[in-house]
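Private note to self, pasted from the team thread so I don't lose it. Backbone tokens:
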């Protein structure tokens, strides 16, 4: 698994937990006793029977919705809430603080694999319903938990050096290219299109007009971001692309079904961490390995601060 894949996997796990917590909180808040503000018992009954959703002639009441949320997520949500209380108490007692820089660095790692910061936040909002503030709160919690976990654990330079040497391929920079192509049936047609490009023709327009690839021609021939060693594109195409700079095109490149003109729209390097940042990250990972499961730490801190769940939950 690459560093990018590990970063994305960790983000998904964290965000999935967050979704359960946030979803459950809706139900939990609905279970709180009514405040003494002059409401009558009838008002409370009306609140419980009020429709939360309607479909056809049927309704789903607020109370039905709340009970379903409580049944599905209630206990996990309470445990997550207790975890956050326990970690906050332990961090305060230990003088542990989380800086804005640490939060931004954590979010930056979670953004690996996204074309931009805005694309990351938009995806988290659309797919998980999580705002920037939600992500910041989750990052702060995870950092605090990890800092508590690694207290008293020391990782020396030799351990860091050995780990980097054993996992060297994970820390090599990976070149990625934003590629587009035009596919045609014969070489002479490809050469004619190249002449048009050299005369100032627009690649996207030419792809739309002449490309035989029905999957890319309506999108200007775009293949999207690809690794420089992408195994799903012909070797001849990737070999040519690796010789090009941004904004350059080349061909004709022979492929099994005809000929290709390849165009490099942009280039980026995935791993932008400095050697110092890499060593810091390795040191953190090694310390966490020695610390043991974070779930166990959460459980022990709940016990330390006397956490109790004093409500019952409906059976599944």
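Design output:
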């Amino acid at each position: 698994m690459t560093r990018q894949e590990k970063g994305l996997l960790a983000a998904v796990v964290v965000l999935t937990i967050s979704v359960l917590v946030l979803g459950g909180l809706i139900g939990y808040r609905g279970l709180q006793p009514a405040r003494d503000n002059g409401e009558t018992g009838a008002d409370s009954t009306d609140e419980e029977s009020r429709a939360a959703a309607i479909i056809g002639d049927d309704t789903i009441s607020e109370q039905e919705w709340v009970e379903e949320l409580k049944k599905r997520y209630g206990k996990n949500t309470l445990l997550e809430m207790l975890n956050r209380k326990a970690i906050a108490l332990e961090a305060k007692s230990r003088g542990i603080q989380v800086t804005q820089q640490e939060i931004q660095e954590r979010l930056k790692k979670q953004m690996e694999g996204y074309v931009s910061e805005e694309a990351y936040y938009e995806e988290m909002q659309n797919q998980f319903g999580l705002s920037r503030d939600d992500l910041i709160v989750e990052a702060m919690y995870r950092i605090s938990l990890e800092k508590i976990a690694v207290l008293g654990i020391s990782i020396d330079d030799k351990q860091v050096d050995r780990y980097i040497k054993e996992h060297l391929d994970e820390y090599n920079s990976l070149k990625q290219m934003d590629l587009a192509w035009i596919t045609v049936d014969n070489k002479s047609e490809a050469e004619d299109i190249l002449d048009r490009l050299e005369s100032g023709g627009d690649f996207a327009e030419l792809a739309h007009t002449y490309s035989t690839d029905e999957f890319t021609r309506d999108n200007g021939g775009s293949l999207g971001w690809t690794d420089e060693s992408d195994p799903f594109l012909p070797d001849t195409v990737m070999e040519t692309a690796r010789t090009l700079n941004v904004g350059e095109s080349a061909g004709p490149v022979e492929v099994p079904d005809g000929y290709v003109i390849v165009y490099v729209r942009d280039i980026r390097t995935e791993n932008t961490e400095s050697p110092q940042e890499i060593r810091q990250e390795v040191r953190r990972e090694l310390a966490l390995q020695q610390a043991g499961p974070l779930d166990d730490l959460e459980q022990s801190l709940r016990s330390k601060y006397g956490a109790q769940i004093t409500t019952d939950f409906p059976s599944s």
